[in-house]
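Weekly modeling sync, notes
Attendees: AB, CL, MP (scribe)

Item 1: holo prediction request
CL wants a bound-state model with 2-acetamido-2-deoxy-beta-D-glucopyranose before deciding which constructs to order. AB pointed out that an apo prediction alone won't tell us much about the pocket. Agreed to run with the ligand included and paste results into these notes for async review.

Input as submitted:
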Amino acid sequence: MAIRKTLVQALAASAMANLVHAHAIVAPAGQLDARTHPSPTCDPSQTVTQTETTTVTSWTALLTITLGGPGTKTVTETTTTTTTASPTFTLPSCPTQCPPPPSCNNLGFDWAYYNSSARNTDTTYSSFHPDFFKNTAPVYVGTTSYVGGLYGQSSTEMTGPIYDSSRVSFALDYFALNHHAYIYACERGTYTVDIPYANDAVYLWTGAKAYSGWTDANADAKALYDQPDHIAGRASFRFSVPAGTYVPVRFFYGQAQYGGGFSFNVTAPSGQVIVSDWETFSPYVVRYSCDGTTAPAFPAFGRET
Ligand SMILES: *[C@@H]1O[C@H](CO)[C@@H](O)[C@H](O)[C@H]1NC(C)=O
Ligand SMILES: *[C@@H]1O[C@H](CO)[C@@H](O)[C@H](O)[C@H]1NC(C)=O
């Protein structure tokens, strides 16, 4: 009996293990743990509960006991056991619709601050040349969980922090900011980069040239402040990619005289905004892939190609 009991227990345990496994396929643990982002189709008031029942039947434990002594008797015992398990699990109310890539302390944008002497005197801020900074030593480098901001907009605000930098005092006139990261396109389709506000300039590159080969001339979009007419720049760019792609993205902000700022958003095909000045560490924006080769880290600022 002890033997059979052990067999049945083992079976029940294995049935439970299978259920745990099935559960894992429906909602991988990594996904459950990931930060969730409300999306247009997500109703946070809804709780999804899934119940899965597995019935294990017709298990036959065959036990043959041979008793010694005179008149040897053989007892054959056959047992059929039915085990039913009904685990219940609840998914988070707004599950991430598109699984983000693995993360390994790699979220956010790399960014760098450079001194810049370029004054804006014309309709296209033609004195500002982002590619000049490829081999210019940055004043500061960091990682940011969001992008965009307003700088030096009041006459008293001559210096201040930028992003979540440990350094709190940057000159807020005559500087440039370089940013790069990969957008992880877990959705196939068209991604939209919006630069709704540029004062004085934002240049954008996407794809391989954003990693290496970017020049003023081959930018995918330029949003330029028209100084004589005092009209802020704006621009938009779309790119279509297959699912599961890491897309290099670089953008340069240039600030001339008299304060300024910019905003920069990236929207996924589903409508979810994955980069903006309020999106904090999107799981879809990484500085490199965890394997280090699918999406390698960018070259160091100041030694770019
Ligand atoms: C940047 O400009 C500041 C203020 O003018 C200056 O103190 C600093 O040395 C400059 N840094 C570099 C790397 O040029
Ligand atoms: C960009 O994001 C800002 C919030 O940071 C939002 O106000 C703005 O509407 C967004 N623009 C676009 C075009 O999505």
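Recorded for review: The CA atoms of residues 204 and 221 lie 5 Å apart.
Action items: CL to compare against the apo run; MP to circulate these notes.
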